[in-house]
Design goal:
461 residues; mainly beta; 4 helices
C-alpha cells in the first residue's frame, strides 16, 4: 500500500481545509550525550524519568465533515478518535511517556487544530499537546494531519501530514506517533514498522508453525504460509520487500525469500544437510546461514539471489551458528561451543579474526547486533534463560529480563527496545514480549495464537 507524506514534516492547514502549503520542519531536539564504553564505542541508556513526567495530552483528531469512509474504523468522526487512540497507545506502550487521552479530554473543533486554547491545557497541567485532523477525499483516500504543541511556550514544535489509502489509516497514526516521539526524545522513530514471527498452534509435540507478520503494535496480523511446512527464524530484508526464513518443506531444511508484494517465494539454498538461522547482510546482498556436515556446524554465506557456491566462514570445531552482521556489515557476531560451552564470538565479515567476547559465566546464545552498533543482545543461560545486552567487546553485560525462559532477542529499528519470546513453564506456550534498555518497561504483544522467533523490521519507507 502507498503512503504519501504530503509535506516533509510540515503541513499548513487552512480553516476551510482546502489549502496545503510547504513548511519547514523544526530541527529535532539533540539526543542525550552518550557515555563512552571501554572499547571506544558509545552506548546510551537514558534515564526516562523526565520524559515520563511530561504531561502529554492527546485529543481526538477533528474533522471538517463527519462523512463515511472506506476504512474499518467508520466515519471520519470515528476514525479521528481511532487515530488518536493509536497515537496514544504507541506513546504509552514504549515505556518513555505516560500520555493522557483521548478519553476524558476536551475535543477541539476543526478550526482549533492549528489554534489551540493553551489556557485550557495549562489548567489541566499538560506540558505537551498533540492534536490532529482527518479528512476523506473523493477518491476514498484519507488525509491526516498531526501537530505537537508546547503548552507553556504556547508554541508549535512540529507538524506533519500524510495521505493514505483507507486500508493504511493506522500507518498515518504510527507516523504521527513517530513524529512526536522523535521531537520529544531526540531519538529515531520506530512505530511505523512491522514484525515477522512464527505463529504456533497445536499440541507441544506436534505444533504447527507458520510464518506471520503484524504491525509494531500487534495490529494487521497476517499469515504468510499455510503451516503444511514448518517455518522458523524469519528476518525482514533491509528494503522491507522480502522475508527470509527457514522452511522444512517435505522434511528438507530450505532457505526461502518470501516476496511480500507478489506473495511468491524464491529458494535461496537447500543443502541436503541440517540448516539453521538464515540472516541478511545489511546491504541485502548476502545471506548467512549455519549448516551441519560431518559432525561440525559452520557458518556460510551465499548470494541473496540464490545459486552460486557458498563460502564457509568458520571451520569448526564444534557448533558455530547464529550469525548477525554489525550495522556497517564489517563484522559478524555468532555463537560457538568451541570452548566447551555456548559462548559469543565476533569475526570479520570474511571470517577473519574470530575471537570470543563472552566471559561472564553461564552460557550465551542467539546474539543480535543493535542497529546503533553499540550493543549486542543475546540469551544468557544461567539457570533460567534471560535476555541480556553487552557492548561489542563483551563488557558491561546487563540483564533486561528475569523470567523462566526468555530468548531470541531482536532490536527495534532505533535500537532502544528489545523484543523476544517468552515460554510459559506450565503450558509451554510461547508469546512475544518487549522490554526497553532500562529493563523496567516490559510489555506483551497481542497475537491471535502462540508466537515465537520475532524479527523486527526497519522503519517503513
Amino acid at each position: 500500500m502507498k503512503i504519501t507524506h504530503i509535506l516533509a514534516l510540515g503541513l499548513m492547514l487552512s480553516v476551510s481545509g482546502t489549502a496545503f502549503a510547504q513548511a519547514a520542519a523544526p530541527a529535532p531536539a539533540p539526543a542525550p550525550a552518550p557515555a563512552a564504553t571501554d572499547d571506544g564505542l558509545e552506548v546510551t541508556v537514558s534515564d526516562d524519568s523526565d520524559w515520563q513526567d511530561l504531561g502529554i495530552a492527546i485529543t481526538s483528531f477533528a474533522t471538517d465533515a463527519d462523512v463515511p469512509t472506506r476504512t474499518n474504523a467508520g466515519s471520519t468522526g470515528a476514525l479521528g478518535r481511532a487515530l488518536s487512540q493509536v497515537v496514544a497507545g504507541d506513546l504509552r506502550n514504549n515505556g518513555l511517556f505516560k500520555p493522557s487521552g483521548p478519553d476524558g479530554l476536551p475535543q477541539p473543533a476543526y478550526a482549533q487544530v492549528q489554534a489551540p486554547d493553551y489556557g485550557v491545557w495549562a489548567a489541566r497541567s499538560a506540558d505537551m499537546l498533540v492534536q490532529g485532523y482527518v479528512r476523506a477525499g473523493a477518491d476514498g483516500n484519507i488525509t491526516v494531519g498531526c501537530y505537537l504543541y508546547d503548552v507553556a511556550l504556547k508554541q508549535q514544535l512540529v507538524k506533519g501530514g500524510w495521505q493514505v489509502p483507507p486500508s493504511d489509516w493506522r500507518r498515518a497514526a504510527h507516523k504521527c506517533a513517530d513524529l512526536v516521539y522523535s521531537r520529544l526524545s531526540g531519538e529515531s522513530p520506530f512505530f511505523d514498522s512491522k514484525i515477522a514471527y512464527i505463529a504456533e498452534t497445536g499440541p507441544k509435540d506436534h505444533r504447527m508453525k507458520r510464518l506471520a507478520i503484524m504491525d509494531s503494535d500487534g495490529a494487521n496480523h497476517r499469515y504468510l504460509t499455510s503451516g503444511q511446512a514448518m517455518a522458523l527464524t524469519p528476518r525482514y530484508s533491509p528494503d522491507y520487500k522480502k522475508i527470509l526464513y527457514l522452511s522444512y518443506l517435505n522434511g528438507q531444511p530450505s532457505i526461502y525469500s518470501y516476496d511480500l508484494a507478489t506473495d511468491s517465494q524464491t529458494l535461496i539454498a537447500r543443502t541436503g544437510n541440517p540448516t539453521l538461522a538464515p540472516r541478511w547482510s545489511p546491504d541485502g546482498r548476502w545471506v548467512l546461514y549455519s549448516m551441519s556436515k560431518s559432525g561440525t556446524t559452520d557458518i556460510y554465506r551465499i548470494s541473496s539471489a540464490g545459486g552460486g557456491t557458498p563460502q564457509r566462514l568458520t571451520n569448526g570445531p564444534g557448533i558455530n551458528i547464529g550469525g548477525s552482521y554489525s550495522p556497517d556489515g564489517s563484522q559478524i557476531v555468532f555463537e560457538s561451543d568451541r570452548s566447551g560451552s555456548q559462548q559469543i564470538y565476533v569475526m570479520g565479515a570474511d571470517g577473519s579474526n574470530q575471537r570470543r567476547i563472552s566471559f561472564f559465566g553461564g552460557r550465551a546464545a542467539t546474539p543480535e547486533w543493535s542497529p546503533r552498533g553499540d550493543q549486542i543482545a543475546f540469551t544468557h543461560i544461567a539457570g533460567n534463560l534471560r535476555v541480556a545486552v553487552m557492548n561489542p567487546s563483551g563488557g558491561a553485560m546487563r540483564h533486561l529480563t528475569d523470567s523462566w525462559q526468555d530468548e531470541a532477542p531482536t532490536w527495534s529499528p532505533n535500537g532502544r527496545i528489545v523484543q523476544f519470546f517468552r515460554t510459559t513453564k506450565s503450558t509451554g506456550v510461547a508469546s512475544i514480549w518487549q522490554v526497553d534498555l532500562t529493563g523496567r518497561n516490559e510489555r506483551k504483544l497481542p497475537t491471535p495464537v502462540g508466537a515465537s522467533d520475532p524479527a523486527w523490521g526497519p522503519v517503513r519507507p
